[in-house]
Amino acid sequence: QVQLVESGGGLVQAGGSLRLSCAASGRTFSNYAIGWFRQAPGKEREFVTAVSWGGRSKYYADSVKGRFTISRDNAKNTVYLQMNSLKPEDTAAYYCAAGGITGTVPEKYDYWGQGTQVTVSS
After folding, report:
1. Distance (Å, rounded) from C-alpha 102 to C-alpha 32?
2. In which band, very low, low, confident or very high, does the pLDDT at 26 lie, cut at 50, 70 and 90?
3. Secondary structure of residue 64 in the 3-state scheme
4. Residues 6 or more apart from 34 whose CB is under 8 A from it?
């Protein structure tokens, strides 16, 4: 089992920045790829970004490329999502997830956090 806890969400104006954290406990964190997904009310959960277990491979949704950056610190069992130039359409609940491979669909991930809300005002 891997337990994941997201933090860092909040209310920010358009153009602002937030940094989300995903802290893990339980089984060896460095064995898992970590993905971030988001879900807005009435919409399906969508892929945002993912990082491989070693941190070398990173993937981003087109909608966030150039604005969001994922990183991981395996010594701290934490993955970060730096979000810059935020837009109102980034408003959603953000979830981190752990899985055996680096995927872009929720089905590839086995463990999920409870989510943190990000609201971007115009």
Report:
1. 8
2. confident
3. coil
4. 22, 24, 50, 51, 70, 72, 79, 96, 97, 98
